[in-house]
């Protein structure tokens, strides 16, 4: 009886994995043209929903009330046009050149518009949004936002590089370079100043902003070299080196994630960081952690910590197994428009994982380190740090499970996409109804880039390969050791086991940020945590069910971590 039940549930799992993959296939085939049309509809002046926007101006959404998004944001527009420029330069869509030229003219005009952040030479390039007729928006806002010039120059440099390869260097030098240079000089001179983050709320330093600035300066210095503008090169490179060093300081080794902002007073878990990994992806850079590549150990650990922070807070995630995809949002503490999951966040998680799969397949191997161990352990409870070549069963097990996990995030977005295929900004945490701005241009663009990554497509590389921080950049990490916590506990559907304890890596006895354990080896729940070496630690397991918490009985469990090597703790719930 037990055996046949077990067999039935195993078959059920396989069937559901196949079912999911074909559900995702069919969602992609219907959603792709809708998303593409959704993007083009929001670009002036010909876009059917663009409501009088000037040519090349991207509206964030046609929504005019609650929220009013009938404006153009430099960030949204640049991310959208980076996607379109990639489609054009790769030959995926050869009809986009007119739109690209319009975008360049529109952005060049807005660069020159005096606005509340300043003029073109006094900080105005940090202005986050404009009216759709290219005039300044003068209302109160979180400004400046310094990711805009970086994302815009990256989009334009990508186009410029293609033009040079296609024998149009004169246009690049005469027309594009002066526009690009304004943004790059702004980054070079101001990257070290505070900025509002990409969510327009926290005024501090921000991982996403610094990372895209770093990328823009690297690409800018390569472009400058290619067109003989060598006078800027050393300035751009010097600042890029400093930004790359600064980026390392966002790493929080326990429990292994990039803190999104230096300010803000939040947990620091934020889609900011997952978006960073996909927007700095360079297929030539392997799994480099210094530039936060999608398959790097730091970015994978970060992905898990980010995703897990949403498991208990959204009703629609209730009852979903700890190793499966869930709905995710900007950050767990978010309250904007209800503080819901965002489509672009779901797509970003999927895209990071698809990018990772592309690189592992290209390199014919994947590596599990102490840092990425908790991520991989979700998919193979007995995994050990090491390198697995593509001919090993472990590689197949892991990559199959990770592809499936990635598809789960697309399937989540698909599940909450209404029948017409429209993508709003959010879907509610209570029942997944589309919410906030409808037809969000960025949502559509994020779907398209995730779909392309799933199909194995990559964008032009930007020079991330081989970068490293200088010896003078102190990024020394304190000594840590991996510890595997196993606890045997019988649970019922809806219950998850979390670990919490006396040090930062164990969330300082938090119940809301406690560490979710994997049930892959049920009734053993496990997780791997990187703890400070040679330190006395106290901990307990908790059962969480829909926000209700049951603690293990007293006293606290206690042990001292080793100086080195992996420790496994085998506990029984009490
Ligand atoms: C509008 C911004 O666009 C959004 O990101 C923010 O959450 C809200 N204002 C609240 O500050
Ligand atoms: C609010 C988001 O937080 C911000 O990132 C975006 O630029 C605007 N909405 C417009 O879509």
UniProtKB/TrEMBL annotation:
It is an enzyme of class 3 (hydrolase). Pfam families: CBM_20 (PF00686), Glyco_hydro_15 (PF00723). GO terms for molecular function: glucan 1,4-alpha-glucosidase activity; starch binding. The active site is at residues 197, 200. This is Glucoamylase. Residues 1-19 form the signal peptide. It catalyses: Hydrolysis of terminal (1->4)-linked alpha-D-glucose residues successively from non-reducing ends of the chains with release of beta-D-glucose. Residues 475-574 form the CBM20 domain. GO terms for biological process: polysaccharide catabolic process. Keywords: Carbohydrate metabolism, Glycoprotein, Glycosidase, Hydrolase, Polysaccharide degradation, Signal. GO terms for cellular component: fungal-type vacuole. Belongs to the glycosyl hydrolase 15 family. Substrate binds at residue 141. InterPro entries: 6-hairpin_glycosidase_sf, 6hp_glycosidase-like_sf, Carb-bd-like_fold, CBM20, GH15-like, Glucoamylase, Glucoamylase_SBD, Ig-like_fold. Its EC number is 3.2.1.3.
């Amino acid at each position: 009886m037990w055996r046949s039940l077990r067999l039935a549930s195993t078959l059920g799992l396989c069937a559901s994995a196949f079912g999911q993959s074909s559900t995702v296939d069919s969602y992609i085939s219907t959603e792709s043209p809708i998303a593409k049309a959704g993007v083009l509809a929001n670009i002036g002046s010909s876009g059917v929903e663009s409501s009088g926007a000037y040519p090349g101006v991207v509206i964030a959404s046609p929504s005019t009330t609650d929220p009013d998004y009938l404006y153009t944001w430099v960030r949204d527009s640049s991310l959208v046009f980076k996607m379109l420029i990639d489609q054009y330069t790769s030959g995926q869509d050869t009809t986009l050149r007119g739109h690209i030229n319009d975008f360049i003219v529109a952005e060049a005009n807005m660069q020159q518009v005096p606005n509340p952040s300043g003029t073109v030479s006094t900080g105005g390039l940090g202005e986050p949004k404009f009216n759709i007729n290219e005039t300044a928006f003068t209302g109160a806002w979180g400004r400046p936002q310094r990711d805009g010039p970086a994302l815009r120059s990256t989009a334009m440099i990508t186009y410029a590089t293609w033009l040079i390869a296609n024998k149009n260097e004169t246009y690049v030098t005469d027309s594009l370079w002066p526009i690009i240079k304004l943004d790059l000089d702004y980054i070079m001179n101001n990257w070290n100043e505070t900025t509002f983050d990409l969510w327009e709320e926290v005024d501090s330093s921000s991982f996403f902003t610094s990372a895209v600035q770093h990328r823009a300066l690297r690409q800018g210095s390569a472009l400058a070299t290619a067109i003989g503008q060598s006078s800027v090169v050393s300035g751009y490179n010097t600042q890029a080196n400093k930004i790359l060093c600064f980026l390392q300081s966002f790493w929080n080794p326990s429990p292994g994630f990039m803190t999104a902002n230096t300010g803000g007073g939040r947990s620091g878990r934020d889609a900011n960081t997952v978006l960073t990994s996909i927007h700095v992806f360079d297929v030539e850079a392997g799994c480099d952690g210094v530039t936060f590549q999608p398959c790097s150990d730091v970015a994978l650990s970060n992905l898990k910590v980010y995703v897990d922070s949403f498991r208990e807070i959204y009703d629609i995630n209730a009852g979903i197994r700890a190793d499966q995809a869930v709905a995710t949002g900007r950050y767990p503490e978010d309250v904007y428009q209800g503080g819901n999951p965002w489509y672009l966040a779901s797509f970003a998680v999927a895209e990071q994982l698809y990018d990772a799969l592309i690189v592992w397949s290209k390199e014919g191997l994947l590596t599990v380190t102490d840092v990425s161990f908790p991520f991989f352990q979700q998919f193979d409870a007995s995994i050990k740090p090491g390198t697995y070549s593509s001919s090993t069963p472990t590689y197949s097990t892991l990559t199959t499970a990770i592809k499936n996990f990635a598809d789960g995030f697309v399937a989540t977005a698909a599940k909450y996409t209404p029948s017409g295929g429209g993508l709003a900004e959010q879907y509610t945490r209570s029942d997944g109804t589309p919410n906030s701005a409808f037809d969000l241009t960025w949502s559509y663009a994020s779907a398209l880039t995730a779909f392309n990554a799933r199909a194995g497509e990559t964008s032009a590389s930007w020079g991330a390969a081989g970068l490293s921080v200088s010896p003078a950049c102190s990024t020394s990490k304190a000594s840590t050791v991996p510890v595997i916590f196993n606890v045997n506990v019988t649970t019922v559907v809806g219950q998850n086991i979390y670990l919490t304890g006396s040090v930062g890596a164990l969330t300082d006895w938090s119940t809301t940020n406690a560490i979710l354990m994997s049930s892959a080896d049920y009734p053993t729940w496990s997780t791997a945590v990187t703890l400070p070496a040679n330190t006395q630690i106290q901990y307990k397991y908790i059962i969480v069910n829909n926000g209700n918490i049951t603690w293990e009985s007293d006293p606290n469990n206690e042990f001292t971590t080793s100086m080195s090597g992996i420790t496994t703790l085998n506990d029984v719930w009490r």
